[in-house]
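Dear U.,

For the methods section draft, I wanted the exact inputs and outputs in one place so we can describe them consistently. I've listed the two proteins in the order they'll appear in the manuscript figures. Please don't edit the token lines directly; just add comments below if something needs changing.

First protein:
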Amino acid sequence: MTLTPTTPMAPGAHKFPQVTGIRWFNVAILVLTPLIAVYGLAFVPLVTKTTVFACGYYLFSMLGKITAGYHRLWSHRSYNACLPLQIFLMLGGISSVQGSCYFWARAHRSHHRWTDTEKDPYDSSRGLFWTHLGWIIFKTKLRSGPVDSSDLGTDPLVQWTHYNYFPLAAVFGYALPALIPALWNDLWGGFCFSGALRLTIAHHCTFAINSLAHYLGSTPYDDRLSPRDHLLSAILTMGEGYHNFHHQFPMDYRNAYLWYQYDPTKWFIAVCKLLGLASNLRVFPSNEIAKGALTMQLRHLKKVQDSIIWPREVEQLPIVTWDNFQEESKLRPLILVCVVLSRRRLPMDFCRCRVLFTTFQHSWTSIQVERRA
């Protein structure tokens, strides 16, 4: 199948789409979950064990969903994982209650294939609200652009979890994080904190990649599209905030190319390789990455160059005859700064000299003076 590229439109070019309905199930999840979390913060005592477990389970959800699992493994195939690691990451992704891996990875591939166009499921030019929540809670006539997802369709783990997503999401998204703290008599704390509060934070940190990461930050590798790099986005999403690099080099297992940039997920994947759990970590050649960075630096320098007023080239200076030059010198004092004789062969008895002079009013001028020998 041949995919015809769609020209990206400028930010703001696409209006908020016409709403044809509400996805009430999604609305219920995104409204009731934070309300339960707020209730817990207000009325349920915070137990240390539950807090530690909630933080650990949050990392489990984020690694499985937006970072190492749904995203870098299944959406981009940036590395290979053994079956135990695949199961671990798949269950972590399901625990974030944001759809099956099959649904999520297809939508994300469409986002990369059709970035900033009408076929992008979370098109950034439709505004922050659309990219953060609108595309999830509203029904429209928009359809995501086609992508190749044949590998997802033949992956047994992806397909099994896709068809059993709802019971799995209920268990790993709500039941398990509530029942484990019940072992130390904190069922309500588990339900409110490791369940609802964890999900609320995980949801909106994930959504930030579609919204903030396309508005906040710099474009060190390419500025034709909206993805941007920013430390805040990286902190919120465990390293996914270097979005400009990621969109330019999507199959790289790293989201942060430089060693000092915050990307715990690339370190997690690297450790898994050391343990024999991951292999074939894909990276773009450093030379190609340097090309992108240099191109942007040159483009920036070109803008600076164009903003500076430069003197005209010598060949573009006006020519004044020697007689006119003498007349001009009678009207105002002139200071000769330099004289350069032309090396060109001149006809007859003419020679040409170029003169840079100024008046006492500090008005600099450059001319060419034609003098009869």
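Second protein (the one for the lower panel):
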Amino acid sequence: MVNIRTRLTYQFIALVTLVLLFFSLGVYFFSKLYLEKRFFKRLQDRAVTTTTLLFDLQQTDRTVLRVIDASDKEPLLSENITVYNQKTKQVLFSSNPANTQFHEQFIPQLDSAQQTLYLRKNEYQIVAIHLTSNKASNWVIISGIDQAGREALDDLKKILLVMILVAILLLGVSGWVFADRALAPMSGIIQQVNTIYPANLEKRVEHPNRSDEIGLLVATFNQLLDRIDQALTTQKMFIANVSHELKNPLTKINSQIDVALIQKRNPDVYERTLRSLQEDTRTLTQLTNTLLELANTSIRVDTLPFESVRVDELLWEAKTQVQEWHDTYRINLTFPDFPDEEEALIVSGNRASLKVLLMNLIDNACKFSPTSTANVDFRSKGGRITVSVFNEGPQIPEADLPHVFQPFFRSNSTAQSSKGHGVGLAVVWQVTQIHKGSIQVNSGPKGTTFTFILSCSETF
């Protein structure tokens, strides 16, 4: 594959060569037009001189014409002069009688309405002038070859061709040098990037000019490094927290089994041990399922199937599911200002993930409520569906509110009042972002409210 330096050089050569060719063709074309115009003017002057000799001076001796040729510094090549009478249809005079037929072929093209005609035939240039005097109507036809003009055009062609070839050579060298200078900062950037490893990911690429295109590229690359650094930090924290959360119930389960196997015990002790193991296993299963939900919503954002979902029905399903898992939970659903139109209850989204979101909000509210009660308020107004979940649990400090949706974060005010892993609200946040909605939390002395808002007219 050709590198950028070589491609830039080729493109520079091609572009400037095209400009030079266009310029050279223009010079050659306009030079040709100028030489033709100048030669036609010479032929016209020659015709006027001949007319004066033949009619004004009444001289037809070719000796006079030879005198005129001798006085001409640039004699015409293959000159031929013919005088044709339009009324008698006869040739009155020809400087080259043997070649009279050459001019006679142009006689049908003569038009009395025009004073002068300019014609071309092969390498000949022809001028025909219409003269009228003493009721006579004559045409003076003169032709010749512009040998000097042809030689000048040939020389010009050779000069332009040589200059273009020399220019292409110079363009190749200069283009290579300038491309090298233009790409020199890229070499430094490559060297800096090669020194960045996961161990020193905080290092950033430096570039002196931050306003040019390379500077913008460096800024974009540094932003990518920031995101990678943040992702790796989150991953490390995630792995550390998962290891810690999984280690506790596994250690507890293993310890209880070891104690139960030390000696034989009565059935009641075994029953209590099994119930404790069942509780620990349920906790471990719930944590595993929550982690899987968080992983699925994080990884499969673009592959989640969307459909029309009626939120009020989904809310009843979430309430029923949570109460099946926890029969001590009380969930109060209220639907003030219930809309008459069914369209006001439907959103476009992923049914399974939205159900997980609602279940996590309800479970979280019941878990931290002293009475295990969650008050859920459903509203649909102005094309937006709002679900508010309130519990009378302890107030979350204002400093902790911005972090409640981070994975494994637990506020000190709630960590001791109830068991948890700090993953449920992270799933809520991720699902909200997927559905382009919003989630807010307000906490006060009387309790905490989570408000989920989603547009019912949004098309995904």
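Candidate sentences for the figure legend, describing the second protein: The two ends are 41 Å apart (CA to CA). DSSP finds ten helices and twelve strands in the chain.

Thanks,
Y.
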